[in-house]
Every structure is written in structure tokens, then in C-alpha cells.
Amino acid sequence: EITSFQEAVTIDSKHLTVEMINHHIEVKRILREERHLCTGHTFIVIDQSGSMRNSDVNGFVSRSHAAYGTLALDFISEQLDSNPNKYGLFAESVSVIEMKDTAKAVLQMEPF
CA-CA 20 to 30 A from 17: which of 23, 40, 80, 87? Predict the structure, then answer.
């Protein structure tokens, strides 16, 4: 079987300042030690069944790559660009769960 792809989707890197990294570390501490300060928790469930290996999504190697690429482009990028936690007034978190034969948390309560 030969698989060919149109031009691949590119995901630009986001420059992180020391201030942004330190803020992330502090919000992770808050989410771990002071859970009552968490104002929202988003759960994202990504199918990882056999059909996700299919290569029928333009710009991506597989449906699985497309799911994670879309997550990066549409969800994470938007959070970084909008900077909803600019003043550190609240702690939002996200968890990513992969569904195969069973569910597996691949990312748990990460701040955004």
C-alpha cells in the first residue's frame, strides 16, 4: 500500500518567556495543593481505535495525528493567544484521555 500526503500542516512554535514558565509552575502547584482554587476543568477525549490509523485527513499522517494537531492548533494555541489567566486570578485545567480498549489519561489537570 502506498500512502501519499498533500502538504503537511505546520504548527508554529510558541516562544515561552521565563515569566510564562514560572507562572505555569505556580498554577500547577495551585492545582496540586489548593484544588478549591481550580475554576474549571476541561476533559478532552481522543479516540485511538484502529480506525484512527487511517491516513485520510489532508495534511496529517493519520486521523490520530489530525486529532492531536487540531487539539494543538485550535485549543492550546487559542489558550496561549488569548491568555485568559493573564493576571493569575484563577486556575483552569485540562485533561486528555485516550480511548482504546480502555481509557487512559495521557495528560492530567494541566493548567492553561
Answer: 40
What is the DSSP code string of 62-91? SHHHHHHHHIIIIIIHHHHHH-TTTT---E
C-alpha neighbours within 13 Å on the C-beta side of residue 28: 10
Residue pair 62/52 in contact by the 8 Å Cβ criterion: yes
The 8-class DSSP code of residue 58 comes to T
Give residue 81's Cα distance to chain centre.
Answer: 14
DSSP 3-state of 43:
strand
Q: How much is the pTM?
A: 0.71
d(CA 72, CA 92): 17
Provide block-wise average pLDDT over 10 residues at a time, the chain (112 residues).
56 81 86 85 92 89 90 77 57 89 91 79
